[in-house]
Design goal:
With 484 residues, this protein is α+β, with helices and mostly antiparallel strands. 43% of the residues lie in helices and 13% in strands. The protein has three domains: 82 residues, no CATH class; 133 residues, no CATH class; 139 residues, no CATH class. The chain has twelve helices and 16 strands. A five-stranded mixed β-sheet has the order 9-10-11-12-13. Strand 15 and strand 16 form a beta hairpin. Helix 7 runs antiparallel to helix 12. The longest helix has 75 residues. The termini are far apart. The protein binds zinc ion. Zinc ion binds next to loops. The site of zinc ion has 8 residues, from loops.
Length: 484
């Protein structure tokens, strides 16, 4: 204890529970520089002891009952506050000095600052455990024991040497070792144990064996205030653990880096593959276009509205006489069907009215009722019979073949477009079937043929109406361009 006991306390004596019940039972008396138990000295006033606290004379009392243990009593009430505690404190030091041994406690670490074993989390949040510091309870021989030697700023109760080195021993009866003193001891690298006697049963100091056990051998009442060898070992363990975690964190960083790089590489590869695919596609497209280069070159000019108007005018003029003749030979309904035409009907290189009249003549007029023909036959016949637009026809066939190929490959494609051509090119290429189909539809409306449900495009020539064709067919040789 740092504080020197005050002989005369100014504190209210009734603050002490024991004092209230008729004064202290002082467990130890002071005589000749030592503290004694009542059984170790003569009885009564003859004991020759004074109070270790207030230094007033004491009388030794033997055990009077089971409840009243041997003790000392002040001869007169001095209002003593410290006799009991000081006696316990002095006797404890004396026991250590006499026996020259001590059970020193296990070092268990510190839950917050030094958890034993140390632990740490890596970057993945995984917990790693270090080596546990094993510093068990040990019975140590002590030598060179000194009581209350001053270390300048503090004065431990006992200083001794054990097998490890210097050992400071604090005996707590009332006050615990303060944080500041503990920090000083730790900073100086000294070893310090605290024996806590503040929780002793009130009878224990009156039982010599029990008190001796409490001071020297009770593992439960002592702890390390400073244990540099255990701390050093713990720090070494912590350092090892930290190195281990640092190494693991490096691995984690490498793994993460590898994953990022792998993801980048994958992305770059994907981009490159897409590029390659696109450039391959562009290459194939270029090659395929090459085959149609000449036809495509003329497509825009061949299908310009100005050219179409011009050729239609030319075709009409050159077909005028023939058309006039033929119109007179057909019934009015057929005449009306032939005078109209699909907008692409010019592609066969001839006046649309003329090819329609001639097709009617060939496939209907010259046939008998019940005869059959197919729209494909009409289309082929028209192409063969006149100078159809060869370049446009080649492009149309290419579109057509590509659609058939796509359909075979499982793409349900309806539009006649070839991926190798531009959208504008695809839109400009005329369909060589539509004008014929359109014409056949009009013949059906005129009731000279009927289209059969199957096979596709199949038509049958109908007999003339029972009433005959309506007379009075009007021929207008000057049919206008609006009819096309
Ligand atoms: Zn006293």
């Amino acid at each position: 204890m740092d504080t020197i006991p005050e002989p005369f306390s100014l504190r209210n004596p009734s603050g002490n529970r024991l004092a209230r019940r008729g004064g202290f039972r002082v467990p130890f008396g002071l005589k000749d520089g030592r503290v004694w138990a009542p059984n170790e000295v003569p009885k009564g006033k003859a004991c020759g002891c004074i109070c270790p606290g207030c230094h007033a004379p004491l009388a030794a009392k033997a055990q009077e009952s089971r409840r009243k243990r041997p003790h000392f009593a002040h001869l007169t009430d001095t209002g003593c506050q410290t006799g009991r505690e000081t006696g316990i404190h002095e006797r404890a030091k004396q026991l250590i000095a006499d026996h020259q041994r001590l059970l020193i406690p296990a070092w268990t670490g510190d839950l917050i600052d030094m958890p034993n074993p140390p632990h740490a989390r890596d970057e993945d949040g995984r917990l790693h455990w270090g080596r546990q510091v094993d510093h068990p309870t040990r019975n140590m021989e002590l030598r060179d024991i000194e009581i209350e030697r001053s270390f300048g700023t503090y004065q431990p109760d006992v200083v001794a040497w054990d097998a490890v080195g210097e050992l400071l021993i604090e005996i707590r009866v009332t006050h615990a070792v303060g944080d500041i003193k503990a920090a000083r001891v730790q900073a100086q690298g000294r070893r310090m144990v605290e024996i806590d006697l503040s929780q002793l049963h009130r009878d224990t100091p009156h039982d010599l064996a029990a008190f001796e056990h409490a001071v020297l051998d009770d593992a439960a009442n002592r702890s390390w205030i400073s244990c540099p060898e255990a701390v050093a070992e713990w720090q070494a363990s912590k350092l090892e653990l930290d190195e281990q975690v640092t190494a693991r964190n490096r691995e984690i960083a490498q793994l993460r880096d590898q994953m990022v790089k792998a993801a980048q590489a994958r992305q770059e590869r994907d981009v490159q593959e897409t590029k390659d695919k696109e450039s391959r596609k562009a290459y194939v497209r270029r090659q395929k276009r090459e085959k149609h280069a000449e036809d495509l070159e003329h497509l825009i000019e061949l299908t310009s509205p100005e050219r179409i108007d011009r050729v239609l005018r030319e075709y009409r003029i050159s077909a005028e006489d023939r058309v006039g003749e033929l119109l007179n030979t057909v019934p009015a309904a057929v005449r009306s069907a032939c005078l109209r035409a699909h907008e692409d009907a010019w592609i066969f290189g001839v006046d649309p009215v003329l090819w329609q009249l001639l097709a009617h003549d060939h496939f209907v007029a010259k046939r008998s009722a019940g005869d059959r023909f197919n729209q494909r036959d009409v289309a082929a016949w028209v192409r063969r019979s006149f100078q159809h637009e060869k370049a446009l026809y080649r492009l149309f066939v290419t579109q057509y073949a590509n659609r058939a190929e796509a359909q075979r490959a499982g793409f349900p494609k309806r539009r006649l477009a070839y991926w190798v051509f531009t959208d504008e090119e695809n839109a400009r290429i005329p369909n060589f079937y539509t004008p014929v189909n359109d014409f056949v539809d009009r013949l059906e409306s005129a009731r000279v043929i009927r289209q059969l449900p199957a096979p596709r495009g199949e038509c049958e020539v109908l007999p003339p109406p029972a009433t005959g064709w309506l007379p009075g067919a009007h021929v207008d040789p000057g049919y206008g361009p609006g009819d096309h």
